[in-house]
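Q: Structure for this?
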Amino acid sequence: MDAEAQDSFREFVENRSSALLKTAVLLTGGDRHAAEDLLQNALIKAVGRWHRIDEPEAYVRQILYRQQISRWRLKWRRRELTVAEPPEAGASPDAAPAAELRLLMRGALARLTARQRMVLVLRYFEDLPEADVARVLGCSVGTVRSTAHRSLARLRALAPELAALGPADVESQPSRDFSPVEVRP
Amino acid sequence: MNVEELVRDSLRELADEQTSTGPGLADRVLVVRRRRRTRRIVSVAAATAAVVAIGVAVPLLDSGKEDVRPADVVQQSKDIAHPDQSPPRELISAGNTVLAAYYIPRTVKHSADRAERVRDYWLLDQKTDKYVKTTQWSYVAVAPGMKTAAVLERNLPASRIGMLDLATGKVARWIQLDHKVAGLSFSRDGLKLVATTYSENPDQLVKMQGSDGWDQKQPSSRTGFYVLDVVSGKGSWSAVKLESDPTDPMGDSFINARQDFALSPDGRHVWAGNPMGEIGKQFYDLTGAEVDVPADQKHLQWYVDAWQSPSGRLVAGDFAGEKWKTSSWVIDARTGEKTEVRGQQLLAWVGDASLIAWDIAKDGKNEFHQRLVKVTIGSDKTVPLSGFRKGNDGGAGRWEPVFAER
């Protein structure tokens, strides 16, 4: 890597790393330390091909997602067990203030599987259309829709206080694809 | 408000709370990348040496003609340093860990877009305690005990392995092979030798379009490994196929052109790095079937040359840089607990409490201007063992150490 490429890489990191870190933090369910590792590893992979990358940000984001998917593929059984804790009991199902609801939601998001969380981050934080989410995950649009549907249902199960909220658009649509969610490497 | 809106608000709130990555991220990435690249091309022999450098608590073979261990192993605890020498001219050692050889890599250009990385070795002459140059070998692995080295002739991959008698400098025996090999690594007890087979020279370099420098030739031509019995020279070959497309640089199966196998520290498995994989390494049984990584070896990193401590209790880890400007992690193999130790790059264990490492000077500014030092867990002190290396990563005059247990 020559000096010019190194300068361009440094400039990219300086300008874009904070935005990329935000996505990484959301993908890891709020684990800042894991997010920094995720981002650093993605940048290490990207820097090796710096000469040949046309759109660095898109490329790094793609690596972030793919790394997170491959983690999920290896660890999902264990994570499923971790997630399958009983919901916290005793909370009132209504009248929780907005800030409290967001905190509850944050806790529930952290307990989703990495893949469920990724679908929500791509749809609701990155605002990607379903077709683009499907491309990122290497699955069908139907699978994206059903995963989003199940993720929201899971959030409700994890935090019963959310029951007072209205249904999401995606939840009112019939979801036909309930096949096991598989990702092609 | 519906659930979607709350998800959106919660994600944005969490994202907005994040402070920036802080300064130096790009440089940290470049340093790690450079270190891995350096490993890729020039220091596989050093990694091999680390395997042989960690054998202490092993039974000696019956002494006999084929014995690869010395007849008398003398415990020497005194460190022998030459802080004025770089590259070293005279014996360097810490405890029973000896700089058994070193090599200097150079690039031999074959055409405008094709070249080869070759290694010239300097082997320790144990009669004079001086390092003597040899250009005969393309690859040298020194067995624990330093009586024998396994060598490959020039023009890799080679179809035979020489067992070099380090006392006479002559090849005592050749092991002829059906599959060509380019990498060698002894087990820590010196009884087994793993040879990595390739269909092409893994040290070939090519010029890629749009790149100024030389790159390794991809995809890797690695085909599998032999596990050979050192005494009889017999063994079996196992093919190792890559699961997914090895040309996909983001795929799990992307490996370096040279990605050698070695016996695991406990000698029960064969393993190799898998740089783009989820856990960075793959373990196999001795017949080539992939197995789960043993629990006490999950912290091993293929590019951290020191690997596991002689007792197996500790694993040498990556660069730390928290307590000191240059330092590394030592990880408890069982609990994963990390301890910071001085040294920029951990190269070989000296017993269970000390290591030989590369390190820069106290006020050093150039990360490549390193010398060999001895560092000790729980100690602030470093003991210089060699002079400082000159040049930058991949530049001329960079020597790479090969350690072995005395």
